[in-house]
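New to this. Help decode both lines:
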Amino acid sequence: MTRGGHGQVIRAAGGVLWRPSAGGVEVVLVHRPKYDGWSLPKGKLARDEHPLAGACREVLEETGITPVAGMRLVVQHYVTPNGPKAVEYWAMRGCRAAFTPTSEVDRLAWLPLTEARHRLSYRRDADALDALGALESGGVAVNSPPVLLVRHAQAADPAGWEGDDSQRPLDVEGRRQAEALRRVLPAFGPSRLLSAGCVRCVDTVVPLAADLGMGVEIEPLLGEVEYATHPRGAMRLIRELAKDMGGAVVCSQGAVVSHLLAALADEDGLAVLGEFWPKRCGSAWALSFSGGRLAAADYYPTFTGPRA
């Protein structure tokens, strides 16, 4: 577990659990008897744990609710007696579940956003609620889960591969990246897994598919050749997947991922940072839509551990 001292940052993560209500959304606050305070569910990361995986684990442990992750909200930075601390928050869909009081968390409350903001014991937590409120007012948080646009994991060097390029397999690092995707992407609650037909794309999501008990749907529109001749077909596919309340994981090659994201963002008027141009193996974009249009794109450069 990352601890303070000698300049090290204590890394933690949590979630703003929400559910629809007549007045907008309600969110969960937890009461910690040790501090006699109300806060958002959160906790420290385990060693080498990705922040999103840690956030989901802490939310489940503290509330008894299995969350479904949405967009990243904020990262809080502050100083504690043990050193500097960074807490990363996600919007998470949740519903009522059995709550068991513990010595760490003895009460739980579902509250409207405004009431939750006033009850918070730590003003800094209000930043995460405000971020959720901004998403909700734009229709993002209450839409279907994100579409995960994944760039395949690292494959064998093409210079040393003598066979058909479409059959080029994952290398050792690629298999490690695929295992990392397997650990983290279930947080988004996907109900479909689609992939371009090349081996390196399919094998990137096969471990995830095995854990979720799903098959991998081979989609020709996601292949480089097919995409180059019919890009709008892939764009329509992503928009259709966004309407599915179960969400989806879509795996393809770097050129397709980059162009597809840029085309969707350009068509819908969303400013997206240029960090997607370096085609990182095993990276992903969580695409959230509002009214059929791309409303937010959240970049995950890696899933193999805490982000730098």
